[in-house]
Write a structure and sequence with these properties.
Elements: H1 2-15, H2 26-35, H3 37-40, H4 75-78, H5 86-94, H6 96-99, H7 113-126
The structure holds heme C.
Length: 136
């Protein structure tokens, strides 16, 4: 009886896990890659010499905001105490100006939480520092 109750709890926990906590599947990554076309005009995910309108996003996961590339970040983003995780990136791409009022990133936001999860999964994959993390 006791075993059963524990099993039930585990199943309940799995069912309520947020999408980002599960490994991204290929369909999700593909969707994310497609969605990133909106970002690509201003951002690169690979290290690059060329400056775009926005900062390079290579190695962004787990990094404090505005600490990456040589880039003239806004005072608002630079003085924030944001660290980029799946959770903060989700809020950022939902509406940048809501997370950081005064940011110079002009982007309306993505309302679909499913699309945001796909985009974050793609970012985790494409901005990873180690090449081995990308071989999938
Ligand atoms: C029109 C250009 C533009 C577009 C489109 C754009 N960004 Fe940005 N992004 C910027 C600028 C400019 C900044 C710097 C903001 C600041 O300093 O306040 C920025 C900052 C960021 C940062 C913070 C970088 C850091 O080092 O802290 C992330 C993450 C980011 N953008 C992701 C995205 C994603 C994902 C998309 C697509 C959904 C996107 N951006 C679309 C211009 C853009």
């Amino acid at each position: 009886m006791r075993m059963r109750k524990e099993l039930l709890l585990v199943l309940l926990a799995l069912g309520s896990m947020p999408m980002q906590a599960l490994p991204a599947d290929d369909a999700q990554l593909k969707r994310g890659r497609l969605l990133f076309m909106q970002c690509r005009a201003c951002h690169d995910t690979e290290p690059s010499e060329a400056q775009k309108v926005g900062p390079n996003l290579h190695g962004i996961m787990g990094r404090a905001a505005a600490k990456g590339s040589e880039y003239a970040f806004s005072e608002s983003l630079a003085s924030s105490d944001i660290v980029w995780t799946a959770e903060t990136l989700d809020r950022w791409i939902e509406r940048p100006s809501a997370l950081i009022p005064g940011t110079t990133m002009v982007f309306a936001g993505i309302t679909s939480s499913e699309d945001r999860a796909a985009l974050v999964a793609f970012l985790e994959h494409a901005t990873a520092s180690s090449e081995s993390a990308k071989r999938r």
